[in-house]
Amino acid sequence: MSASAPAATTAPALRRTPIPRVGARGLLRTLSRNPSFVLGAALIALLIGFALVGRFFTTYNNAFPLSGPPSLPPSADWIFGTDADGRDLFAVIVYGSLLTLKIGVIAGCLGLGIGTTLAFISAYRGGWFDIVLRVVVDVLITVPTLLVLVVIASVIHRSMNTTIMGIIIALLAWREPTRQIRSQVLVMREAQYVKLAVLNGASAVRVIFLEMMPNLLPFLGANLVIAISQAVLASIGLEALGLGSPSEPTLGLTIYWMMNESAFMLGMWWWIIEPIAVLIILFVGFFLLSAGLDEIANPRLRRAEG
Amino acid sequence: MFLAVIWVASTLNFFVPRLAPGNPIEDKMLAQVEYGGSSVDVQALAKAYNAKFGLDKPLLSQYLSYMHDILHFDLGYSITDYPTRVTTIILHALPWTIGLLATTTLLAFLLGTLLGALSVWRGAPRIFLGCVPLFMILSAVPFYLFGLILIYVFATVLQWLPLSGGMGIRSNPSLSLSFAWEVLRHSILPAASILLASVGIWALSMRGMMVTVQGEDYMTYAEALGLTGRRRFLQYGLRNAILPQITLLALSLGHILSGSILVELVFGYPGVGQQLFRAIQNQDYFVIYGIVLVLICAIAIAMLVVDLVNPLLDPRIRHARRAN
Questions:
Q1: Is A12 contained in some domain?
Q2: Does the beta carbon of B6 lie under 8 angstroms from any beta carbon of chain A?
Q3: Residue A225 and residue A214: Cα distance in Å, rounded?
Q4: Is residue A19 part of a domain?
Q5: Across residues B194-222, what is the average pLDDT?
Q6: Are B21 and A233 in contact (CB < 8 Å)?
Q7: What's the ipTM?
Q8: Does residue A157 belong to any structural domain of this protein?
Q9: Domains in chain A: how many in total?
């Protein structure tokens, strides 16, 4: 947060609107005004931290059947209990959380990347590309995500793994970011500082990356978090339908096993509660984080709240 | 636009599954041989079946006959449950899904909109303000996760309500009061899990709209006229803020549908979601096609209806049309 000023080193014509530099204290103050961001980030960090630290206490093999006695409630030896097939649920949760997040991050990043690229081309070039893209997005956005993914996933069912799952989900994950970012870029293009840069003869690349991108960052961040959360949602849905990778212990697969092997009838509450609790922490964390980023991206919201 | 959606959906629906490496007919034959130990020539049998279902013809002619059939509302036969027609399977399951989905969506929409509006309305009880963050957080959690928790609490531990299904195993559908009660009892938990999670969606957006509307000049004007709080709330505030909500309703239908499919799965509710799950497990092409297509069409129709109803609700659009 030191007050380095890259604007001074670039051509003087490209001077940006001054961004108030904040020190550590200013940062703290901003954060304290944005509790949803702090809480959301804390929840996600807690979960990732748990998954990373948990690795030191168990091994990947424990997340598979017959690593322990079946159907044990939580105890000193098996702190999260075991499921009906003798998986150590502690290992399942530790490794499953990260695997599920991996799917979300792959799909979210791909979706946002594709979406941002398309949005910039579309909003900047206009013309037929813009028209076609708009119609395509409008049509695709009405299609229920899960149904399309079901059709695709049922096709490559046999070679499914978490990476492929992420890529499949990304096939539809670009729709929302494209639409959101496109309209944001259209607004931004009319902003004074962008017009000034264009008048100064800055190239399109320069305007996009040096003028628009920095101002878009919180907005992109919020979109990324939403995309990741949607992707995790879709992956859990596919896995619960039995379309996930059968050999990687993700959280969704855990839910699939739990439903299929009737944990309810057996009254194995730990098998039911644990994956659900982790997922609720994850989703609520993402929700708060994106709301917080939205607030940073869109200061008008801050005033509306007050 | 409406037709485009349906055409894209049906075409995608046709081609994507055909890229599958597996052949459903042969798979099914092999499975039957393994079960029953009948030593018929599987290859020959599969060929005969392929001819029967038209799976041996070139892709283009398959596509054309598929399109032709769809236009005649013929979705073919189920491969697993031959000779049941796909249309029959869907028609059996659809009332359950529509009943559950329509009721809960409507209820959630009304409750959420009202809650969101009241939460920022000056002069409304403060309790509404406290409700909104709670429901917002609930809305971040997928429907079926609530479903699983509700099942555990109310069906396993307390045993107040049935664990799964749409009606008792032994009961026959009839128009009696006791049967209606049974159906209702089975639908409480699925409905509650959809409601809990979706009220927040509406409350959140309504709150935003209401904040904007309250700053408008006509609200000050209404206050200056000395109109009662109730009248200002209903006719000046709610009336203006609710229009974007209806557009949002059209856009969210797909999302809600996806969620409720999984809710059906979780609860073993005998709707379309359950049939879809079965079809996926059996690689039953025609049933998967049929269900996905029917659901996408249903969404498209619902959106069309909302599009047509919107101008009726919004006098500004109505007047603009007349002026043209």
A1: no
A2: no
A3: 18
A4: no
A5: 81
A6: no
A7: 0.72
A8: yes
A9: 1
